[in-house]
Write a structure and sequence with these properties.
The chain is α+β, with helices and mostly antiparallel strands and about 425 residues long. The protein folds into 2 domains: about 1-20 and about 230-430, Alpha-beta prism (UDP-n-acetylglucosamine1-carboxyvinyl-transferase, Chain); about 20-230, Enolpyruvate transferase domain (UDP-n-acetylglucosamine1-carboxyvinyl-transferase, Chain). It contains 12 helices and 23 strands. It has helices spanning about 20-35, 45-60, 95-105, 125-135, 165-175, 195-200, 235-245, 265-270, 315-325, 345-355, 385-395, 415-425; strands at about 1-5, 10-15, 35-40, 60-65, 70-75, 90, 110-115, 135-140, 145-150, 160, 185, 210, 215, 225-230, 250-255, 275-285, 285-295, 330, 360-365, 365-370, 375-380, 400-405, 430. Strands 21-22-1-23 form a 4-stranded mixed β-sheet. It has a 4-stranded mixed β-sheet with strand order 2-15-17-16. It has a 4-stranded mixed β-sheet with strand order 4-5-3-14, with helices on one face. β8 (about 135-140) and β9 (about 145-150) form a beta hairpin. It is globular, with a radius of gyration of 21 Å. It binds shikimate-3-phosphate. Shikimate-3-phosphate binds next to α5. Shikimate-3-phosphate binds near residues 166, 168, 193, 313 and 337. InterPro entries: Enolpyruvate_Tfrase_dom (IPR001986), Enolpyruvate_Tfrase_sf (IPR036968), EPSP_synthase (IPR006264), EPSP_synthase_CS (IPR023193), RNA3'P_cycl/enolpyr_Trfase_a/b (IPR013792). Its main location: cytoplasm. Catalyzes the transfer of the enolpyruvyl moiety of phosphoenolpyruvate (PEP) to the 5-hydroxyl of shikimate-3-phosphate (S3P) to produce enolpyruvyl shikimate-3-phosphate and inorganic phosphate. It is found in: Cytoplasm. Its EC number is 2.5.1.19.
């Protein structure tokens, strides 16, 4: 499937984007390992989260739904998973493979984890290393999937200083820690999303955070819970940028998760001059939520503060489009993690920006973007959902038509993106390749 976008348009109205991907994954994982039933609403019915559902079904967990975002998980307890009949294929989902590696390291059965062509290129050494230190037996050629995990290892708690700011690695180690003898603790070079810690507490499991040392003791129990998944700020980000760059726009995004470890996109856009207001701030099931109003405002280029990078890590494709539409130069550094996402997002975005005639210079750990007029052209997405959505919204300020190739992966995080975007004013049509 490809998206064809006519240039121009304004973004207005009200919308609730699909549920948070990170929280949806964790709701299935912890619900499956809990005692009793877990009911989830607002669940993301995207391919990545569905891959997590399928993996737990394959390990004997009864999961009803999702239907209209409702899921019911009949937990089997921390020791109730069964050996799957075949390798678990988690598709495109880095979160599933990295978090599952941690919790499967503590089981008494062997398991193999694999995924699609893009996932098979992504680095897994970052989870293999701490798990091996805990006593797990995990192998993967060149540190890439497929990963083989041997059952029956006695895990021991360790302290792990994360070498990179990664919530997936942090979560992997903490989930293995549920099965380890003694305490498992981690420190991170910069705060990353804390949904695992929050949700563990919501399931009645004690997680301590003292002066940045996050820790838990193995051998406890999880109690089934009710989870209301907020709308994903990473999906909302495309519309925060879309409304900011398209003159005349005025949009309300409802029920968006505004966890402080996720709001880098709001902070960065605000520094660029965006008109963003949080309304009706509230807490839903341990996660802060708000309605967000965003109106068009002329943006200016900035030097992105490095402390915001982990807090906006998935939002840079959208933010690069904001930078392309801003007056002046935007500089991003300290973002080497972008090179190992679903695609090398620095290279993929630089290529597309060049196609549209936007001046840019690629750095090892970031990019320099000079705002200016956007032309049109054909964009390659490298099978990356967020590259596809970023260049779709760029059409609002383009002078000619944009064709975004290979958009099937949009469904991993944002099923129905094109229909929702069309309803809000983006002139997009989806065409079969
Ligand atoms: C995620 C963590 C981030 C993010 C990914 C989801 C999570 O990855 O990019 O989309 O749910 O823990 P890293 O841990 O690799 O930074």
């Amino acid at each position: 499937m490809e998206f064809k976008l006519m240039p121009g348009g304004t973004i207005s109205g009200e919308a609730r984007v699909p549920g948070d991907k990170s929280i949806s994954h964790r709701s299935i994982m912890l619900g499956a390992l809990a005692e009793g039933t877990t009911r989830v609403s607002g669940f993301l019915e995207g391919e990545d989260a569905l891959a997590t559902v399928a993996a737990f079904r394959a390990m004997g967990v009864r999961i009803e739904g999702p239907e209209d975002g409702e899921v019911e998980i009949h937990g089997v307890g921390l020791h109730g998973l069964k050996a799957p009949a075949r390798a678990l294929d988690v598709g495109n989902s880095g979160t599933t493979i990295r978090l599952l590696s941690g919790l499967l390291a503590g089981q008494d059965f062997d398991v193999e984890l694999t995924g699609d062509a893009s996932l098979q290129k992504r680095p897994m050494g970052r989870v293999m290393e701490p798990l091996a230190r805990m006593g797990a037996q995990i192998t993967g050629a060149d540190g890439k999937p497929p990963l083989k995990i041997a059952g029956g290892s006695a895990l021991k708690g360790i302290h792990y200083d994360l070498p990179m700011a990664s919530a997936q690695v942090k979560s992997c180690v903490l989930l293995a820690g549920l099965y380890a003898e003694g305490r498992t603790s981690v420190t991170e070079p910069a705060p990353t999303r804390d949904h695992t810690e929050r949700m563990l507490r919501g399931f009645g499991y004690e997680v301590k955070n003292s002066n940045g040392v996050i820790s838990l003791a193995g051998g406890g129990q999880l109690q089934g819970a009710e989870i209301d998944v907020p709308a994903d700020i990473s999906s909302a980000a495309f519309f925060l940028v879309a409304a900011s760059i398209a003159p005349g726009s005025d949009l309300l995004l409802t029920h968006v998760g505004i966890n402080p470890t996720r709001i880098g996109v709001i902070n960065i856009l605000t520094l660029m001059g965006a008109d963003i207001q949080l309304k009706h701030e509230r807490e839903v099931g341990g996660e802060p939520v708000a309605d967000i109003r965003v109106r068009y405002a002329p943006l200016k280029g900035i030097e992105i503060p490095e402390d915001q990078v982990p807090l906006a890590i998935d939002e840079f494709p959208a933010l690069f489009i904001a930078a392309a539409c801003a007056e002046g130069r935007t500089i991003l550094r300290g973002a080497e993690e972008l090179r190992v996402k679903e695609s090398d997002r620095i290279a993929a975005m630089a290529e597309g920006l060049t196609t549209l005639g936007v001046g840019n210079e690629v750095l090892d750990d970031g990019i320099i973007i000079d705002g200016g007029p956007l032309g049109g052209g054909v964009i390659h997405t490298y099978h990356d959902h967020r590259i596809a959505m970023a260049f779709s919204i760029a059409a609002l300020r383009a002078e000619q038509e944009i064709r975004v190739l290979d958009c099937d992966h949009v469904a991993t995080s944002f099923p129905g993106f094109d229909a929702l975007a069309r309803g809000l004013g983006l002139q997009v049509s989806a065409l079969a390749d």
